[in-house]
């Protein structure tokens, strides 16, 4: 086991989408704003991965709760946008727990301020303007302008979205736990590195076994007056220890 673990080094991991329904994955668009899917000729119901393996320096507030500082996260953006009123059910399932989601419109009709506060998780090269967009979140709070019964359900690993949308669109950012790194092979060690690891493993094995050999040797000597022949040739250090035991 020691040898196996010595030949392994951590490999970074990131959360992945296991399955989805009602959403098409796209590459990150050039910008996110009202009607951006229609204006850029993109499908009406999409998602894309944003930044991965980001460790939060401070607590992060979402519309569903606060993610503690020090948490490593991955981010995904989901968007619905078309020219005609459409009612949809879509879901997305991850291989890591969902930690929070930003998705609501405020009572004044503008998107939640948590969109702008989490834009540092956005895709490099994408300009995010959704934070100042009117009715670009989900109108899920009664009294919100355009309230139409938008809703969503978060389970441990799955987000289920029920938007009624057209323009300017309904957007959401889903923040997922970044998985713990998994062991992987050491790269670039070559034969010298392998031999060094084998030598370390052999040394530790002999070191760990030495006290057991000494105990057997002392026990045999106390019982019979002579050491076991298998352990007759003890190293000098062990000979001294055995003499002290005898005295």
> What is the overall shape?
globular
| Percent helix | 10-25%
Q: Got a strand count?
A: 18
Which radius of gyration do the C-alpha atoms yield?
30 Å
**Roughly what is the average pLDDT, rounded to an integer?**
79
* Terminus-to-terminus distance: 39 Å
Low-confidence stretches: 1-12, 207-223, 229-247
Structural class label: alpha+beta
Number of helices: 5
Indicate how many domains the architecture comprises: 2
Sequence of secondary-structure elements? HEEEEHEEEEEEEEHEEEEEEHH
Task: Characterise the protein shown here.
The protein is of the alpha+beta class and about 250 residues long. It has 2 domains: about 170 residues, no CATH class; about 60 residues, no CATH class. The chain is about 25% helix and about 30% strand. It has 5 helices and 18 strands. Strands 3, 5, 6, 9, 12 and 17 form a 6-stranded mixed β-sheet that branches. It has a 4-stranded antiparallel β-sheet with strand order 2-11-15-14, with no helix packed on it. The N terminus and C terminus are likely disordered.
Which SSEs are present, and which pair or pack?
Blueprint: H1 2-6, E1 8-11, E2 17-21, E3 24-25, E4 31-32, H2 36-39, E5 45-49, E6 54-55, E7 60-62, E8 65-67, E9 72-80, E10 86-87, E11 90-94, E12 98-102, H3 113-117, E13 127-128, E14 151-154, E15 158-162, E16 164-165, E17 170-177, E18 182-185, H4 190-224, H5 236-246
Parallel strand pairs: 3-5, 4-13
Antiparallel strand pairs: 1-18, 2-11, 5-9, 6-9, 7-8, 9-17, 10-16, 11-15, 12-17, 14-15
């Amino acid at each position: 086991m020691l040898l196996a673990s010595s030949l392994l080094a951590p490999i970074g991991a990131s959360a992945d989408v296991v399955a989805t329904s009602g959403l098409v994955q796209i590459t990150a668009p050039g910008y996110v704003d009202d009607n951006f899917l229609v204006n850029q000729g993109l499908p009406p119901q999409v998602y894309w991965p944003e930044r991965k393996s980001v460790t939060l320096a401070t607590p992060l507030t979402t519309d569903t709760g606060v993610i503690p500082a020090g948490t490593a996260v991955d981010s995904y953006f989901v968007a619905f946008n078309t020219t005609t009123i459409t009612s949809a059910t879509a879901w997305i399932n991850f291989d890591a727990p969902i930690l929070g989601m930003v998705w609501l419109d405020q009572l004044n009709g503008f998107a939640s301020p948590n969109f702008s506060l989490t834009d540092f998780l956005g895709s490099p090269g994408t300009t995010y303007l959704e934070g100042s967009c009117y009715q670009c979140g989900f109108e899920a709070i009664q009294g919100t302008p355009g309230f139409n019964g938008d809703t969503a359900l978060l389970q441990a690993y799955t987000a289920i979205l029920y938007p009624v949308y057209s323009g300017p669109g309904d957007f959401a950012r889903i923040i997922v736990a970044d998985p713990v790194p998994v062991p992987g092979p050491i790269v670039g060690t070559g034969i010298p590195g392998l031999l060094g690891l084998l030598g370390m493993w052999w040394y530790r094995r002999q070191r760990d076994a030495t006290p057991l050999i000494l105990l057997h040797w002392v026990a045999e000597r106390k019982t019979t007056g002579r050491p076991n022949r298998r352990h007759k040739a003890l190293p000098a250090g062990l000979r001294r220890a055995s003499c002290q035991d005898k005295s």
